[in-house]
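During the no-cost extension, the postdoctoral fellow (Dr. R.K.) reprocessed legacy sequence entries with the updated structure-token encoder. One reprocessed record is reproduced below for audit purposes.
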Amino acid sequence: MTRILLVDDQALVRAGFETILSSEHGFEVVGQAKDGAEGVRLAAELQPDVICMDVQMPVMDGLEATRAICASDSHAAVLMLTTFDREDFLFEALSAGASGFLLKTAEPEQLIDAVHALARGDALLSPEVTRRVIERFAAQTAPAGAGSRPTAPDASADLSPLTDRERETLLLLARGRSNAEIAKELFVGEATVKTHVSNVLLKLGIRDRIHAVIWAYEHGVIAPRG
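Re-encoded structure tokens follow.
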């Protein structure tokens, strides 16, 4: 059973999401919050698996609430929901620790698929969007004039738990490769790649693959291409 928390300041929106999600076998909406502060409290109290989080709310907005939840002991994956197709919201949400981003104009089936994806531990971003994220974070974290080759990891980037193949997988993840592309480059099957990705996330304590990309750039595991 996937336990879901809804956080939105509009009661009708929460009711609509609950109707859609409760219709899916294996989903249970365990709570609703009308603002970010209440969402943080209920996340700690109810321990949901997935949190559907609005961006703009009174008292505490969704970005601040997501930062607080992801900095806590919560294992919940946060799906940011907004009516605004703004790139700055996307990057702020990912920086806060969100694992997915979906417009409220999406079809009901897309919301259901998004919750399934986050419940599996996947990030809800296409490879194309992942590459945009890479470019944005690379520009923010790289020193001026950085080249295309990987840099020496900083002291906090302990890669010793990873096997050689898992390190290769991390580098390819950081370059925005999909599982199929990684499998082709490493001459292995996609199932093997999924295992490598899972091992990388587990060993490094990273929430999902998109945050593995961010982690790699922030820790100097790889530098942007010039």
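Confidence is low (pLDDT under 50) at residues 143-153. The CA atoms of residues 79 and 172 lie 25 Å apart. The remaining legacy entries will be reprocessed before the final report is submitted.
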